[in-house]
Amino acid sequence: MRPLAAVQRWLFRLGRDEQVPIVLTQRRIFIVPTRGGIVFAIVLAVMLIGAINYNLSLGHALIFLLAGLGIVAMVHTFHNLFGLRLTPARAEAVFAGESAYFPLAIDNTRPQPRRALEFAFSHQPVVRAEVPPAGRATVAIPHAAPRRGRLDPGRITLTSRYPLGLFRAWSYLHPTFSCIVYPRPIRTPLPPAASTAHADSRHGEGGLEDFAGLRPRQASDPTRHIAWKAVARRSDEQPLLVKEFAGGAADELWLDWALTPGNRDPEERLSILAGWILAAEEQQALYGLRLPGHLLRPAQGPTHRAACLQALALHGEPTR
Amino acid sequence: MRRRPGVALELGAVPWLLAAALATTVPHAEHLPPWLSALVGSALLWRAWLWYRRRPLPARWALALLVGGCVAGIAWQFHTLLGKDPGVALLVVFMALKPLEMDNRRDAMVVILLGYFLLLTHYFYSQSIPAGLWLLSTITLLTATLIRVHGGAQPVAAIARLACLLLVQALPFMLILYLLFPRVSGPLWGLPQDAYSALSGLSEQMSPGSISSLTQSGAIAFRSQFAGEVPEKADLYWRGPVFDDYDGLTWRARPPAGGPARADPLIEARGQVHAYTSILEAHNQRWLLALDVPTRLPPDSRLAPTLEVLAREPLRVRSRVSFVSALDYRASVAEAAAVLQQSLALPAQFNPRTRALAAEWQSLPPREIAEAALTKFRHEPFYYTLQPPLLGPDAMDEFLFTTRRGFCEHYASAFVFLMRAAGVPARVVAGYQGGEVNPVDGYLTVRQSDAHAWAEIWLAGQGWVRVDPTAAVAPARIEQGIAAALPEGEPLPVVVRIDADWLRQLRNRWEAANNSWNQWVLGYNPQRQREVLSRLGLADADWQKMTATLAVLCGTALLIVTLWTLPARRAVDPVQRAWQRYCKELARRGMARAEWEGPLAFAQRVARERPDLAQLTSEAAACYAELRYGCQGDARLGQLQQCLHRLPPQRRRKA
């Protein structure tokens, strides 16, 4: 098996595509007859025998025209892929058990449309795309995401049988795709707010009750805390200011690894934490996340939610 | 085994497939039993209805039953499942029923391949020009269907355009393969019995009415092209079978006499000879129609003792043969006594009046006997007609003394009867007389309606001499053709009687086109291929040479098609090119422009880092920015290009 793999690696130029966009050149496109194409050839051979036997001159003409059609179809199938420029884009994070979609922009510089392009990761569903003449199309290629973590979908096979289905041209694309897969959320009741008074938490700090001054905004600050009036007063390009509050510890929620049932599987505990994050976000509560070796201070909003879920997704993985 | 689920067929592709099925089966309706055509039509209609109402396809077992029923029906109709006609019928049935289980792309592919196969079977029945055109349009439809099946929904015009483009690109391959693919002369195995049904022409015997029924057909018997001038119409006697055995009703060719093999007939050609090439339509007989009398024969043929040319095999395909003939000749001056004896034989009874008349002439020299008979035809009220009355057992008596109405076979046989009864060796020759030159391509066209019968008598010192009694009755038949000789109202085919000039011209053009088609498309056999190739400079090509040439030419064509379909390289904007070249030169000098850097920003950076290049670069950048984003047109393009040349030469790197 080893030598075959080496041949494959050489023939198909396996390896990641570092350069973007990926341009499909001759060397990257492979073409073989499909099963239909082989049957077509057999049918032509049978027809030729018939035409010779019955001395059908016009039959010869028909067979030769069809043979020419086959050859021309090969060229067209090849050209359907030739010169395409493919640009990978970022994939949106998904929850485990869902399908991740990897977007790929396809640019066609030729005045002919490209039709029936089929994209698929190996052993994954196929998605078809068409690119208008001298235009661009975007395709989202699905890949099942059964486990949390960082999903590396591997290489894409781009196939085309257009126009006649007698030949199959394909190319392997291996852009550096990755997608964060969050743990599959398990909905359990949120931990009681009282439990926020954790041993090492600095009680009363960063609350929402009492105004405690202004500070420069950070990405994780909710927009409704921006001190618009204060911003409006200052004309120069300063970072936005947010109001800081103190107190109100009751609203502060700590989603702690230690609060999840200790007798469960670690993955399940991460799933429970994911469920909590979703619930806390829905209740518009301020929540923080505490994992072994990782701590996210309480905040709220989509960015915070994503950061928390990502922390869960990558928990225990070597950081990159 | 469970079928692997294929790629589901789009609903939108179904009408295309049904149209393809229809287009390939409809022409077969002509030669299929009506119940089968009706069944095919209703199966396709049913499938169309299912598609229209988005109904599920019928169950497998129902289809299996239907197919079994159809196969049984075909077996019952044709008494067999082997052979051409039942085979075609089976294919048609499969083509009609396959769409009823067609739900994925592989089934669609099967339908298309069946369609291509059915196209071939059309040529069992006709290989005419219309059939060829039908081929082109149907193949376009089938190809368009394939495109629709594999390419998804798209405008019909786009599909049609691509299908036509593919076919146009396939044409050169077809031509190369057609010319160079080593031809094998078939058949490879014994053909089924029904392979040569409907062929018409002269038959092996002649009875009253056999030639007049042939003249009802305007079909072409053969075409000839003369190397020199076409001889006079009255001299164009095309010799077919010779009949010298009469049983009182029917003339037959005598079976070859036993005993010593007869010597080859001796022909002494006098005067001018004519070389010509004929394209003979298949007639399923061995004789090749040559102008009286051939002196040089095509290969694989021989001259029979009765002077007709016989091929080795019955003529089952349209064939191209070349002859040289002499119109003035003496043949078989020293004919064997046995042959002469047989040329006097008559049935023992019947026709007493004719025998009595001949007995009166017996004392005359042979030539005068013939003259006396012709004089009788000329002066008595004989009529030349396609509709003679029926004759009884004393056929000659009735014809010569009572009815006096007949066609050429009546005159020829009566004349020969008279000669034999008077002691002059005589025989009947059947063949064609005359022909018409098609001004479009110069070919002489001879039709079945030109079929004729005449007589030959043997004279001592002159051999066999042709006597045409019809000429005595209706001289116009020989000089102007049958349409002139027969009065209006005689049942002649329309093509023969065309009077309107434009119609005649149209017919001539059509037949000339057909002639080229026959020679170049249908008659392109191994022999013709060798001829053509040697004319193209590929003398005595064997299959290896041909295959090599074929491969080279196909490769060239493939290259051309590939280049044709390759995207035209986008013309690079000259402004862009000049600027890129400038930046490249600068990069060599250590100042690479970053991808994201605009021209002016780049110039500023150059000014900071490389003061020596600052001025030129800011000029070039200003030019580029002006050309790109300004509104003064291409005025400063030259200046930008100049900047490149004004760059100081590159400094040598110190080693």
Q: Tell me the fraction of residues in β-strands of chain A, as a range.
A: 25-35%
Q: CATH topology of the largest domain in chain A, which one? A: Immunoglobulin-like
Class computed from helices, strands and strand pairing of chain A = alpha+beta
Q: What is the count of helical runs of chain A?
A: 6
Terminus-to-terminus distance of chain B: 75 Å
CATH architecture of the largest domain in chain A: Sandwich
Chain-averaged pLDDT of chain A: 83
Described by the principal axes of the CA atoms, the overall outline of chain A is elongated
Task: Describe the largest sheet of chain B.
Answer: 6 strands, antiparallel
What value does the Rg of chain A take, in angstroms?
29 Å
What does this structure look like?
Chain B: InterPro entries: Bact_TGase-like, Papain-like_cys_pep_sf, TgpA-like_C, TgpA_N, Transglutaminase-like. Chain B: This is Transglutaminase domain protein. The complex is a heterodimer of chains A (320) and B (655). Chain A is of the alpha+beta class. Chain A has 6 helices and 17 strands. In chain A, the strands form 5 sheets. Chain A has a 5-stranded antiparallel β-sheet with strand order 2-11-10-6-7. In chain A, helix 2 runs antiparallel to helix 3 (57-81) and helix 5 packs antiparallel against helix 6. Chain B is of the alpha+beta class and 655 residues long. In chain B, the strands form 5 sheets. A 6-stranded antiparallel β-sheet of chain B has the order 9-12-6-2-17-16, with no helix packed on it. In chain B, helix 4 (84-97) runs antiparallel to helix 5. Among the domains of chain B are: 11-153, no CATH class; 205-346 and 425-497, no CATH class; 574-646, no CATH class. The interface between A and B is large, with 48 and 60 residues.
